[in-house]
Amino acid sequence: MATQEQTADNDFPKPTIVLVHGAVEDSSLWTHGVIQGLQRDGYPVRVYSNPLRGLPNDVAYLRSLLDTIEGPVLLVSHAYGGAVITQGGDDPKVKGLIYAGSPMPAAGESTNDCLNRFPGGDFASSADLIPYTLPDGTKGTNILIKAEKYAYLLAADVPESKLALMIATQRPIEAAALADVLTSAAWTSKPSWQIRPLLDPVIPQEEFKFEAERAHSTVVELKSSHAIPVTFPDVVVDVIKQAARAVAG
């Protein structure tokens, strides 16, 4: 027999949920229960494989994905993905934005600004800077998280078996991406939800509060590490469903 919530979920057309991962991770972030929970409840899901090569490029690829979707969309981010959905969310089919442990920069700000505006964040000390050279001689710097710092910084409450996989499957982000400045911020004109991890050493709690207040976000607090989609996938799904009902009204 269908529950009251399941019946309510069938009372409106479901938006497509686009999941956008952040730095030093890949799309498998969403496979610990978020994708399964959304599909179980009948939501169309698209997972965006974030290139992590720079904000303009990453946003352009997100927009190309949005061009393939018909109907309303909710964008869901983790970590640096918050900057990508903030700028890419200006697409008219995007009806709302959900930030799971993500920064919410304003136009004229970068991800680094969100990490450094208030004291208490500890991303830089755990970062491993890796120079690279492209075939044309262009040089850049990739960022990974030092293996010995990974659990402390990103996943203190993740089981050892999952933690080992997360460390092994890190994808580097181009360091310049964190300094790229946004030219627009979709949360100024669209509803937003912030899932705030209270045990996150990456983004200071004062920053989370500052961002949510200026965006007038709906806030859900969790005693979680940075790895919310891994540790609390059911909460992420519940917030997405709340947002879907809200934008359908």
Residues in β-strands, percent: 15-25%
Based on the coordinates given, report the CATH architecture: 3-Layer(aba) Sandwich
Name the CATH superfamily assignment.
Alpha/Beta hydrolase fold, catalytic domain
Overall number of strands: 9
CATH class: Alpha Beta
Organism: Terriglobus saanensis (strain ATCC BAA-1853 / DSM 23119 / SP1PR4)
InterPro entries: AB_hydrolase_1 (IPR000073), AB_hydrolase_fold (IPR029058), Sec-Metab_Biosynth_Hydrolase (IPR052897)
Pfam family, one: Abhydrolase_6
Protein name: Secreted protein
In short:
The protein has helices at residues 4-9, 34-40, 55-66, 81-88, 111-116, 147-154, 160-168, 175-179, 205-215, 228-231, 233-248; strands at residues 16-20, 45-48, 73-78, 94-100, 127-133, 139-145, 173-174, 192-197, 218-222. By secondary structure, the protein is α/β, with parallel strands linked by helices.
Kindly list the characteristics that best describe this protein.
249 residues; alpha/beta; Rossmann fold; 3-stranded antiparallel sheet; globular; AB_hydrolase_1; Sec-Metab_Biosynth_Hydrolase; AB_hydrolase_fold; Secreted protein
Would you kindly provide a written description of the structure presented here, covering whatever features stand out?
This is Secreted protein. The chain has one domain (about 5-249): Alpha/Beta hydrolase fold, catalytic domain (Rossmann fold), CATH 3.40.50. Helices cover about 35% and strands about 20% of the residues. The protein contains eleven helices and nine strands. It has helices spanning about 5-10, 35-40, 55-65, 80-90, 110-115, 145-155, 160-170, 175-180, 205-215, 230, 235-249, and strands at about 15-20, 45-50, 75-80, 95-100, 125-135, 140-145, 175, 190-195, 220. Strand 3, helix 4 and strand 4 (about 95-100) form a beta-alpha-beta unit. The chain is globular and about 50 Å long. The two termini are about 25 Å apart.
